[in-house]
Amino acid sequence: MKQTLFIIMSLLSFFGLGNAAHAATIRKVAPTYWWAGMKNPELQILLYGDNIASSDVTLSSKDITLKEVVRQDNPNYLFLYVDLSEAAPQQFNIVLKQGKKTTTVPYELKQRTRKGCEIKGFDASDVLYLIMPDRFANGDTKNDVVPGMLENKVDRNEQYGRHGGDLKGIADHLDYISDLGVTAIWLNPTQENDMPEGSYHGYAITDYYQIDRRLGGNEDFKSLVDQAHAKGLKVVMDMIFNHCGSENYLFKDKPSKDWFNFKSKYVQTSYKTASVMDIHASEYEKKIATDGWFTEAMPDINQRNRHAARYLIQSSIWWIEYAGINGIRQDTHPYADFDFMSQWCKEVMDEYPNFNIVGETWLNSNVLVSFWQKDSKLAAPRNSNLPTVMDFPLQGLMNRAIVEETTDWNDGLYLLYDYMTQDFVYANPMNLLTFLDNHDTSRFYQKEEQTKNLTRFKQAITFLLTTRGIPQIYYGTEILMAADKADGDGTLRRDFPGGWEGDKTDCFTRNGRTDLQNEAFDYIKKLLQWRKGNDVIGKGSLKHFSISNGTYVYERRYQDRSVVVIMNGTDSEQNLPLAPYKEILPKATATDILTGNTITLTDNLPLKERETLVLTF
Length: 617
Ligand code: CA
Known about the structure:
By secondary structure, this protein is α/β, with parallel strands linked by helices.
């Protein structure tokens, strides 16, 4: 009986007779659903369907108020603004009437499963592990090709093609990630990129409410977050508000021309975003940097359009509430409208006060980067409200510092000391994302043959994991993957060996790694496991000394505990006089956590070439 009824219902629905004759086809509803009891009681509901704009709109709810119905140039869109301040969790109908034609759109307000303050963001006690999902591990070959999607093949020999990695592949290796000792994963974008080419990197979103089905889909994403949480790993989601993919329905059939900058016509950005805060910048420079398009295939969204702005803000809140993510990494942050981005950060942090957002602030100096951090004195009276910025200047310096011979006035580790002396420019130096490399830069090791010198690797990793800030490690660093950006972006994002069935080597296992890889892996793991939950590094202050005898010395302190890092930046032995460091050496002996050796701290400390000590007190 049930089956018969189901068939009749299906037939009625097939002929469009489910509710009334000639109902309009609704192609998208965004957000797909929402929650009762959010701090911001306003909700925008975007309806996209054939010629629906002339409809009269009513809601079948007693406690939801329809405040505003907005029609744009395109008759296929309706934007509803509703007031949820009195609304209980419920299912209701949005009813569209056009003459005799009635279209019913079911909508749900769910019960929240947690309070906003219960979502814990990432901070300096964490270390992020950055993964490009298409290139890490293929956990499900059935989703490699999804019929109907534009890029519908995998080719692992093609550096810009899809390789088939997915969320299940990441979930399958959470033990490996957790064992390494990082405490969070940041995934390059996972939202749908239904683009004809280059869709593997994820930065051309075609539906903000859909995880790319070749990666798994929405439920797999939520499941991955749950599994990560169960293993003590936080999850940071990559988002892009500056631009979307040109195959996005919002661009292909745009609500109005002013949804995209330059009236929806392609004009290339200059990428020179220093013009946003440059007091001498011409109007031309300012406009071309932020309103120009990232590429022709990535139309530049006009966030000054209030409907576009609301759509983007809600999409981010939807993912936090739906999946319980711990943070957002916002792509190309300075390319979007400053005031909009500021408003977005404020609204997210109002809803989730313990959350964290890091913006991609790819600028060449600490002065420029600092402008983008919340409460920056240099930006005042403007305020980005962005809690965390990326320390790109330090990334460049770290890569130089460990190659060059250090002197007391120039070069090598002096660069790090000199840069750190300028930290007063930052409103919050602890909230800087620090990294040696990421998916857009050359890897720390550009050439395979360089990996033979692990001394410099060890020094760089030690500095990264013990100085101020929130470290981020790019997948494969722990197994010495090398890549030069000059060989193409795809090479920076090579497959993790062992992530695909039949791979000749499996670097997820000790036996699959070479001795050199295991030495690097063990070193980074030891430091990461030691750093995990260590308040001296996660919360402690930083005090440092100018370079002496080519050696950089700094202390991290939290309450009555401290760690002192001593780094010889020269290719010679040093005999470091310890008198200047008295105030940070409370005892005559200390344990070096790297070797377990007891180090005697008397008049002079002998150091081997490029030796690093991490002393605990
Ligand atoms: Ca797959």
